[in-house]
Amino acid sequence: MKLFVQINVAFGVLLVLVLSVTAVIFHYVLLDHFIQVQKKDMQQMSTSISMQIQALPAVTMAQQGTIFTPEEAAAAATAAAPLAVPTLTVSPVAVAGVEAVVTDSQANVIFSTLSAASVQSVPIRLEQTKAAVASNVTIVQEGKNDSFLVASNEINDGTLTLFMPMSKIKAIEQTLLGRLLIVLCIGGVLVFLLSLIITRRLIKPLMKLRGELRKVENRRFSEVKLVKAGGEIGDVAHTVYEMAEELEKYNRIQKQFIQNASHELKTPLMSIAGYAEGIRDGVFEGEGVHKGLDIIISESGRLKNIVTEMTLLAKLDGEEDIFRLAPVSIAEIVTETVERINPLLVKNGLTVHTSYDDDCDRELVVQADRDKLLQALLNVVSNAARYARKQIRIRAGIDKNQIEISIADDGEGIPDNLLPHLFHRFVKGKDGETGLGLAISRAIVERCGGNISARNRSAGGADVMMRFPTAS
Question: Transmembrane region positions (predicted)?
Fold first, then answer.
């Protein structure tokens, strides 16, 4: 199932659930609201009627205990007795949908708004009807019947009870709830349609991003384009674009490396093959044979060095166990580097000056593979000895919580067109050898958690800087 469908199905189910819960809450809230409002209105009506009954002249109910209609109550208005009901206030009560019953102190019904027809429709004797009504009124007055809302007030030696069937309130509530449900359903449909539009806009960049990742899968890195999107999707799209650029760059470097490696290997192999064939065919005689053999040996050694350095680079790039980190003293490693490179310095007539900032030579310790770090320094210093005129300066110190090792010479400096690519493979100057020495140094320094850079000094010559994090 596609992500677009999954999101919308999940949202639709959630929307239905929320609307169902909302409808149930509306039902109970509306019902409770109508009940409270109707109770308040009935209480006010009961109080008003009771006050009118007590204020107006009373009429005697000649036939106590009899159920009266409004007309019968008006006919009895000529008599006089302790308990009375005014004829002016009885008949309007039923118009409001509220039934009224007046009982005496013994709970006998002396007046009711129930119609005579409703009483006559019951197939029992009048005495049984009076008893049943009196019993039911007592139950309603005491709040034991949940089918009615009740409001009672004391009047002259009796009780006025108003009650309203709950069915009428529920009918009103159901009507209003039905309309609210229609509004909720229409709103839910509109919200769902809006979610479809929003989801499609959110999913569209992901679909485009999937297409760009297909290009990466097929190694078409240069064709990858930046997908414009906001938020986290935009961050992922930008990361994919940068990844494609890096992969394209790496792919280009790999192709260039293979081409350069082929060229570097081809040159000594051609020399070896040429002199070997010449000696075999008798082209070289006497001293020429010895000279040819010397060249074969020299080119074989050069070929061996290239293969060794290429193998080391491959291991530094791909093998984890080739590197064994341990605390290494900078002062010791610099001293050993100078001792190792001393024959080349004497041959070229160069001097080396070493210095340490603020007498911190005993405190400079880095986490590195000692043999590999020594090789990286030897490569950089021997490269400086190849171009220096009189001297090489090696300085070590701490700057911004990083250990720095600077190797500077007083030569002509690095050509500007060569400087950005100086630490790439098979990049070499006019007197370079394999073009792999500085690339190996960079790989070693980076495996130690540091970085290496080069610049031309204003006073002349090149300055190669290695930076390492301090050992904890």
Answer: 6-30, 176-198
204 is a domain residue: no
Domain count, the chain: 3
Q: Any idea which residue has 């002199």 for tokens?
A: 275
Contact 466, 374 (CB under 8 A): no
Same domain, 13 and 154: yes
Contact of 184 with 22, CB cutoff 8 Å: yes
Please tell me the distance from the alpha carbon of residue 267 to that of residue 255, in angstroms, as a whole number.
19
Answer whether 101's CB lies under 8 Å from 143's CB: no
- Is residue 420 domain-resident? yes
| pLDDT surpassing 50 at residue 103 | yes
pLDDT band at 301 (very low <50, low <70, confident <90, very high): confident
Same domain for 417 and 309? no
CA gyration radius, the chain: 53
Give the pLDDT band of residue 73 (cuts 50, 70, 90): very low
- Predicted confidence at residue 121, as pLDDT, reads 36
pLDDT at 119: 37
- The verdict on 20 and 147 lying in the same domain is yes
β-pairing, 148-155 vs 326-329, is: unpaired
Instruction: Centre a 10 Å sphere on the Cβ of residue 414 and count the other Cβ atoms it contains.
Output: 19
Q: What is the 3-state secondary structure (H, E, C) of 352-420?
A: EEEEEHHHCCCCCEEEECHHHHHHHHHHHHHHHHHHCCCEEEEEEEEECCEEEEEEEECCCCCCCCCHH
Residue finishing a domain among 318, 348, 377 = 318
Domain boundaries, position 454: 326-469
Residue 10 belongs to some domain of the structure: yes
CATH number for 249: 1.10.287.130
* Cβ–Cβ under 8 Å, residues 105 and 138: no
Q: Which of helix, strand or coil describes residue 468?
A: strand
CA-closest candidate to residue 341, choices 370, 372, 381:
381
Q: What angle do CA 417, 421, 422 make, to 5 degrees?
A: 95
SS3 at position 57? coil
Determine phi and psi for 301, rounding to 5 degrees.
Answer: -65, -40
Residue 125 to residue 129: CA distance in whole angstroms: 6
